Amino acid sequence: VDRAASLLERMSVDEIVDLIQIMPSKDAQEIIVRLSPSGTAQKVKRILEYDEDTAGGVMTPDFVSVDPDMTVENVIDKIKQVSERFHSIQYVYVTDAKEKFLGVISLRKLIVADRTKKAKETMRGHKKLPTVTAERSLLSVARKMTKYNLYSIAVLGPNHRLLGVITVDDIMRRLLPHA
């Protein structure tokens, strides 16, 4: 179990949740206890609170978020600092101090943007973006992502707090597990 927990620490939170959900309950609890108590374990427990067939049960709490007053140059520097932790980064999520979702910036937009502009000037505002709540069904999330041709979608909680994101590969893995 110790070795398994050590290996799991190198996986993304959503992958750990997927694995824990197929394990016997006793083994899953032992592994959760051995995960990093301050970070990974808390994130895993938070996702496990949701039904696995909902947006909350599929989302990952691992995403790049930035302050709206950061410059584009600072945002790019942050991406460089944290990029090792992510399989891929296509979007940066702009949130305020209370983790309220304000908008999103694509990497493409960051590359071509004026480096002195602020994130809030470069982002696409949340009012123009499709989002989902944590309780939303997977099928509903898939429909929305397909309708708007999205690679990822923000999962919001009360007061527009950004809880996580769902990527198209997460949806595909759940809806077509043997493909």
Give an account of the 3D structure:
This protein has ten helices and seven strands. The chain has helices spanning 2-8, 13-22, 25-34, 40-48, 55-58, 72-82, 107-112, 119-122, 138-147, 168-175; strands spanning 65-66, 91-95, 101-106, 124-125, 131-133, 152-156, 162-167. The strands form two sheets. A four-stranded mixed beta sheet has the order 1-2-3-4. Strands 5-6-7 form a three-stranded mixed beta sheet. The chain is globular, with a radius of gyration of 17 Å. The relative contact order is 0.14.
Compact overview of the structure:
The chain has 179 residues and is an alpha/beta fold.
Features of this protein?
single chain, 179 residues, alpha/beta, four-stranded mixed sheet, three-stranded mixed sheet, 10 helices, globular
Protein topology:
Blueprint: H1 2-8, H2 13-22, H3 25-34, H4 40-48, H5 55-58, E1 65-66, H6 72-82, E2 91-95, E3 101-106, H7 107-112, H8 119-122, E4 124-125, E5 131-133, H9 138-147, E6 152-156, E7 162-167, H10 168-175
Parallel strand pairs: 1-2, 5-6
Antiparallel strand pairs: 2-3, 3-4, 6-7
Helix pairs in contact: 2-4, 9-10
Name the shape in a single word. Answer: globular
The number of helical segments is 10
Mean pLDDT: 88
Spans of at least 5 consecutive residues with low confidence: none
Give the SSE string.
Answer: HHHHHEHEEHHEEHEEH
Strand order of the largest sheet: 1-2-3-4
Rg result: 17 Å
Q: Report the major sheet.
A: 4 strands, mixed
How many distinct beta strands? 7
- The end-to-end distance, rounded to whole angstroms, is 30 Å
Percentage beta strand: 15-25%
User: How much helical structure, as a percent, in the residues?
Assistant: 40-55%
- Structural class given helices, strands, pairing? alpha/beta
